[in-house]
Design goal:
β2, α2 and β3 form a beta-alpha-beta unit. The longest helix has 24 residues. Strands 3-2-1-4-5-6-7 form a seven-stranded mixed beta sheet, covered by helices on one side. The protein has about 210 residues and is of the alpha/beta class. The chain is globular. The chain has six helices and ten strands. α1 crosses α6. Bound molecules: glycinamide ribonucleotide. One of its GO terms (molecular function) is phosphoribosylglycinamide formyltransferase activity. It catalyses: N(1)-(5-phospho-beta-D-ribosyl)glycinamide + (6R)-10-formyltetrahydrofolate = N(2)-formyl-N(1)-(5-phospho-beta-D-ribosyl)glycinamide + (6S)-5,6,7,8-tetrahydrofolate + H(+). One of its GO terms (biological process) is 'de novo' IMP biosynthetic process.
């Protein structure tokens, strides 16, 4: 079973879904550490409550992105994790960091990639009049939010939705699909090869598992 290191910046509802999935026996993995770049991230409290080792690496204490990522890499390596799970970790990672963990880095992004890379995805979907929105889990490559998609989940956008309404609808799906993907990874069923996501030796389509 895989050792997971989860990286967060905030609330940690995805982290909680993973903790719950491990407890319920739906995710046969061990969360060996939770790292936050923000000292007041509520996810750190969730991890502590679950008896998981936590570490805060406050990015404001580092000279630049490269210096921060070197320290982050060192911390993750000391945990000997099989997967680095970005769960609301709101920082861009250097190519050096990403390359060091190629094939082991996963992210959840609140849009139907390749749409709406970056920030404010829910508001952008509303502003564009989209009838459908969603969330993607993908392998991380040096291209921001550009790595191969593993799975997507779609939700409707209703006429009077606010960004918060939509976020809530999307996050319900997040809590479902991220533990599922991690269970595949932990079982050795999921890999990245030549910039493609592979599940059970089959190349997944552009929009991921269906
Ligand atoms: C989630 O909605 C996740 O998709 C998003 O941040 C939220 C974190 O929630 N991630 C990004 O926007 C990445 N660029 P959580 O802290 O409750 O898991």
């Amino acid at each position: 079973k895989a050792k997971l290191c989860v990286l967060i910046s905030g609330n940690g509802s995805n982290l909680q879904a993973m903790i719950d999935a491990v407890d319920a026996g739906r995710l046969n993995a061990e969360i060996v550490g939770v790292i936050s770049n923000r000292p007041n991230a509520y996810g750190l409290t969730r991890a502590e409550n679950a008896g998981i080792k936590t570490l805060c690496l406050d990015h404001t204490e580092y000279a630049d992105r490269a210096a921060y990522d070197v320290e982050l890499q060192r911390a993750i390596e000391s945990l000997q994790a099989d997967a680095i799970v970005l769960a609301g970790f709101m920082r861009i990672l250097t190519p050096e960091f990403v390359d060091a963990f190629a094939g082991k880095l996963l992210n959840i992004h609140p849009s139907l990639l390749p749409k709406y890379k970056g920030l404010n995805t829910h508001q952008r979907a509303i502003d564009n009049g989209d009838k459908e929105h969603g969330v993607s889990v993908h392998f991380v490559t040096p291209e921001l939010d550009g790595g191969p998609v593993i799975i997507q989940s779609r939700v409707p956008v209703f006429e009077d939705d606010t960004a918060d309404d939509l976020a809530e609808r999307v996050q319900e799906q997040e809590r479902r699909i991220y533990p599922l993907v991690l269970s595949w990874f932990s079982a050795g069923r999921l890999k990245m090869l030549n910039n493609k996501a592979i599940l059970d030796e089959q190349e997944l389509p552009e929009s991921g598992y269906a």
